[in-house]
Every structure is written in C-alpha cells, then in structure tokens.
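Now for a typical sample entry:
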Amino acid sequence: REVKSIFEELGLPKPNKDYSNIRVEDVSLERVLPDRRALDAVVFEVLGLSEQEQLAVYRAVVELVKSRLVKAQSVG
C-alpha cells in the first residue's frame, strides 16, 4: 500500500494547513493503522517497551513532527 503521512499512519486526520487539527492526545494504539501497528510491534517487542511506553513513543513522534512542520512554515 501507499505510505501515508505519519499523522495518517497513526490514525489521525489529514493535517490542515496550520496543523491545528493534529492533537497529540488523540493518538492511541487502537487508532494506528493495523499493518503499521504490526510492524511497529515487532520493533517495540525487541526493545521491550510496554504498551504505555509505545503510546509515549507514538505521541512523541507526532509532537516532534508537528512542531518541526509548524516551525518550517514560520521560517519559510
């Protein structure tokens, strides 16, 4: 399948222009696309991460990507 944006891969909506519709607290393990979740689960298992830690990783990724994209818009 075609790879989607990290936001869509993690079950969030397609971002609007200012990313205001992307909310870290909306990330949940249940919303992650099933094939993405299966692949990530293998890596998380090797790392020995609990489900709570996995959720924290997903949320940190969303926060980082969103903040960098917003920053890029402000400089560009």
In short: The mean pLDDT is 96. The helical segments are 6-9, 34-47, 51-75.
